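Good morning N.,

You mentioned wanting to compare the apo and holo forms, so I went ahead and generated the holo version with nickel (II) ion. This is what I fed in:
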Amino acid sequence: MYPIPDISSPAKIIDSHAHYNDKRFEGIIDELMKKQRELGVKRIINCGCDLESIDACLRLSERYDLCYTAVGFHPETLPEGDIDTNKLRTLAASDKVCAIGEIGLDYYWRQDNKEAQKKAFCDQLRLAADLGLPAIMHDREAHGDTLDIIREYRPKGVLHCFSGCREMAEEVVSLGLYIGIGGVLTFKNAKKLIEVAKSVPIEKILLETDAPYLAPEPIRGKLNHSALIIYVAEKLAEIRGMTVEEVINITTENSEKLFSL
Ligand code: NI
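and this is what came out, ligand included:
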C-alpha cells in the first residue's frame, strides 16, 4: 500500500512540505497518519495551492494533531485575474496555519503568464510580511526572476525543493532564507544538489517530502510519505560526515525555529 522504511527511526522528523490532501492518500490517510507517529514523524506541514486544496489541508490539520497548514496560491494553478489576498488573510488566521505557501514561480509548466505569476508571488510575499509569517516558495525554471524578487522583498522562509546551483544557494542563504531538500538528493543525477547540500550551513537546511511526489531512493517512483525522509537524512549525513540523528535533530530545530512550531 505504501512503503515503510526498513530502518527503525528514533528520529523526530519534521516534514516541512507535503500534500496529504492529494487523491493518492484517499482511503489510507487515517492509518498512514497513525503510522507516521510510530515511525518517528513529529510534524508535517501541508501546503495548499488553491482555495480547494487549502480547505482540504486545513481539515487535515484539524483532524490530525501532527499536521500544520500553509496557505497560498501556487503558480501552476493560479486563478485568472488578481488573487484574493483578503481571503488568504482570513484563512491564515486559522489556528494551525504556520506559513504562506506554496507560492512562487513556475516557468516549466507555464510561460504565458509570467507577469501574473510575479504579481501573485509579490502580493503574497507582502501578505506574509504583513502577517509575520514565513513563506514556502516554489521556483521551477525561474531562478533569475525568483532571485530578483527575493532580493527586493527579503522574505523570511524557505525555497522548497531547491533546484538552483551552489552559488544561488549561497546567495539565498546570505539573504536569510532556508533551503528545502527532499528525495531528489538521493537520485543518481543529484550532483548539483549534492554540491548545494555540502556547501550551505546545516542550520539553513530543512527536510521535506513534497509527498506524494519525489519518493527517495530506494523506493523512488512509489508513494512518498513523511517517514521516508529518513533516507534523505541518511544521504545528507553521508554527504556532511554527520550522524543521521544529528541531521534530524538540527533540521528539526531549523523547521521549528522558522515556522514557530
Ligand atoms: Ni509542493
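The pocket of nickel (II) ion is lined by residues 17, 19, 47, 102, 210 (CB under 6 Å).

Happy to go through it together on a call whenever suits you.

Best,
F.
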